[in-house]
Each structure stands twice: as C-alpha cells, then as structure tokens.
Write a structure and sequence with these properties.
This protein has 359 residues and is an alpha/beta fold. The chain has 2 domains: 241 residues, Type I PLP-dependent aspartate aminotransferase-like (Major domain) (Aspartate Aminotransferase, domain 2), CATH 3.40.640.10; 102 residues, Aspartate Aminotransferase, domain 1 (Alpha-Beta Complex), CATH 3.90.1150.10. Helices cover 37% and strands 16% of the residues. It is built from 10 helices and 14 strands. Strand 3, helix 4 and strand 4 form a beta-alpha-beta unit. It binds pyridoxal-5'-phosphate. Pyridoxal-5'-phosphate (PLP) binds next to helix 3. Homodimer. It comes from Calderihabitans maritimus.
Amino acid sequence: RVFNFNPGPATLPLPVLEEAQKDLLNYKNTGMSVMEMSHRSKEVSELIEEAEALMKELLEIPQDYRVLFLQGGASSQFYMVPMNFLREGSEANYIITGSFAEKAYKEAVKIGPTHIAASTKEENFTRIVKPEEIKLSSHPAYVHITSNNTIYGTQWHAFPDFGDIPLVADMSSDILSRRFDVSKFALIYAGAQKNLGPAGVTVVIIRPDMLERVPDHLPTMLKYDTHAEKNSLYNTPPVFAIYMVTLVLRWVKNSGGLAAIEKQNEEKAKVLYDVLDNSGGFYRGHAQKDSRSLMNVTFRLPNEELEKLFLSEAADQGIVGVKGHRSVGGMRASIYNAMTLEGCRALADFMKEFQRRHG
Ligand code: PLP
C-alpha cells in the first residue's frame, strides 16, 4: 500500500481493512455480509449501540448526550443546524475560519437571520480568530465554529466559551484526534471520511436539551429528534459505513484510546512541521504557527514548477495525495489518525532529500 495523504476520503487503519475483508462474506457466522443484513436485525441494532457507546467512552461524552448516525454528509448539517435551532427573534452566529465554515454560514443565510461574529477571510484564512475579535449579535441562537480547517491547515487549540449560548462545531476533519471537553458543546457533527471511517455516514453528537428545541413543522428526516428517538434507525441507515466506524472505534480503543492517539498525532505533525521550520524558507507553511493544524499540514515550495516536480517524485516513492487545494495551492499532507508515524517520516525524509537536490 502507498502512503496516502489524501484529505478525505482518507487512508484507513490497515487492521480495520483487514478485519472488514475477513468479515465481508460471512458476518458473525450469519452466512451473509453485514451490508446484506436487515437493519432491523439484532446484529445491526447491536452494532449501532456499540458505535454510540464507543464514541461516548472514547470522547468522554456525557451519558445523556446522544450520538446519531445520519446521511447526507457534513454538508447536510450546514442546513440542518439552522433549520432545527434558528428561532424567530434570534440570529445564527458564525465564526468563519475557512471555506467549509463559509459554506455552513451561506446555508444558514437561506434559513433565517445570520451574523458573522468573526472572520479571517481577509487574511486568506492563515489563522484562527483571537477571542477578542469575536463580536456576537444581540440574540444569538447559537455560535458555529469549524474546529479544523481542512483546506487551510489551521485548527482551534482552545475553544471559545459563550456561557449559555449553544456552541455548535463542525469537527469533520479532527474529531477523535485529540481530547477535549464535549460538555462545552451543544452539538458536534462530522462526516466520517477522515478520522472515523468511510464516506456515507455523518456523526452528530447532541445535548438532550437541543432535541427539545426542534420545531414540529420540519420534514421528518431533517429533525434531529426523529433520529434520536429511533436510535438512528428511523429509515435504512448506512449499515456498512457504521460497521466500518465501529471497527475504527475499536481500533482507537485498542491503540490506547484518545490520549495515545493525541500523542501520536502530535508526534506525527512535529515531524513535518520541523522540516518546514528547518528548511530556511524553502518550504513555506500557509498557517500561522499558533494556528497550525495537527491534521492537515499545508505548505508551498519556491515556485509552481518545483511543486509539480515534488508531486511526481513523491508519487514515484509511493507518497500520494499531497497536492494542496486550489484555493491555497502548493501541498497539503493530511495526517489523520490512520496515517502512521512511519508515513510521516517517509514524507519528511523525501522533503529533505528533495530540498537537497533542488534547493
Ligand atoms: N466540513 C469540513 C471541515 C470538511 O473538511 C468537509 C469535507 O472535506 C466538509 C465539511 C464536507 O463534508 P461532506 O463531504 O461530508 O459533506
């Protein structure tokens, strides 16, 4: 297998893929694959219960919160959040630190009154906002943040606290990568395809009082309480994707839990950031140092010709997926949980060698 630095769908842990391969034809001696099984079967209900329980255990989620497994990607949460929580007489507040944050905001604009509480767009999203830059509206329905900005390679390292105002976070690209206090959040959502599993399922972590705020007039599928009441089994859920998420959660647990994963992620990111910092300016990071992401390392080379050469030489060495997003250019190494330290070292060695030859 290659070292896959793609930003998502991203590389999955090898033991997880091997286990799925083993289970594929005959899940738990049922004589069929888990994806061929009724979603009303005991096996599937147990799978969903296990996934919720493991999420709660690993992230230390308060017991009364619910963990839901939905479809439609994180992008569907961009409109579900305002549809469920934006009431008349209040404003949806957004802190805009990247393109996905902006997309979330633009969906909310279609639903009701909105307010940009802070933004770093003018600086091409090279950093997270400072607490003193955040200006909330007069009656905030909630404040929405994006914990890790996948495209720009920036990440919140300390979360803001607005007291009783519900804090909502898109954690698509860093959920399960580090420890944090879930109880500070009213709702967290994440598309699975970076740290949690394959695309096709979106995880929503929701505080119980938020479920009570859901208005009755919404279409059934768009109401969070529908999915909470039915344990994510209101309609046919993406069983295979949830099964894969469960395997990933077991893998995280067996790897020593979130503390161990966090330590490993810090080590991995340091290997790459050290190369940037010791390159004498050959590699230029996009993110300001105090906003650097542990998940997406973004950098540029001296010119586009060298960048093209970098990509093709890297691919020759089995290092793939490092092309940056077009809005930043250059490179982006996505080093989610399943990327190994070995993979990061291989990329770091390649970067040093490339500089020696072309610098
Ligand atoms: N939010 C963030 C932070 C992302 O990185 C992405 C995808 O890369 C999305 C939202 C969109 O997710 P989806 O493709 O699941 O709709």
